[in-house]
């Protein structure tokens, strides 16, 4: 039986950009596809990918197909293999995905809101930017990990990567959301309840706000 890695290395810099662009579900699946493709070819058979998205990462088949369609041309390409009449997924590399969100050197860039201006000159419309500190990065990684319904957030991993001082506010926010029934916990791991998947954006926004509270 194929062994899929149990942990996924996330890039916190792009999580908030994906959330703002309403592409966070597609980004979470991009991470999952990269984990499934552990040998690093960047290509997966569609049915093979769907099998492990459902068995290893908790997606339903309908959700997997829906998100795979939504992310096509953004995080991956789906192309038919004519000789065997099957679809293949070509997973975009990290550099291509990061570039698409205009992220550079640990900073978060925000483009102007005028859609027409953006379409005319998408590479020259940075309105402002901000440096991401350790608390911001921890909050972004926590937000994206909540998209992984089976794995969730492992506190020890956040602590090892960002330090106890930088996640204390997050843990306090998680515990508050657990008390309200918006998150689940087993003491060391926090997960999003399946009943909250369709109304999860306010939860994610609150996690991000906990990174650097005013």
Beginning-to-end CA distance, first to last residue: 49 Å
Strand content: 15-25%
Helix/strand order, N-terminal first: HHEHHEEHEHEHEHHEEH
From the 3D coordinates, which CATH architecture of the largest domain would you assign?
A: Orthogonal Bundle
Helix share bin: 40-55%
- In the sheet with the most strands, the strands line up as 1-3-2
Q: Count the beta strands.
A: 8
Q: In the CATH hierarchy, what is the superfamily of the largest domain?
A: Winged helix-like DNA-binding domain superfamily/Winged helix DNA-binding domain
In CATH, what is the class of the largest domain?
Mainly Alpha
Radius of gyration: 18 Å
Number of domains: 2
- What is the tally of helical segments? 10
- Tell me, briefly, the overall form: globular
In CATH terms, what is the fold-level topology of the largest domain?
Arc Repressor Mutant, subunit A
Q: Detail the poorly predicted runs.
A: none
- List the quaternary state of the chains: single chain
Helix/sheet category: alpha+beta
Q: How is the main sheet built?
A: 3 strands, antiparallel
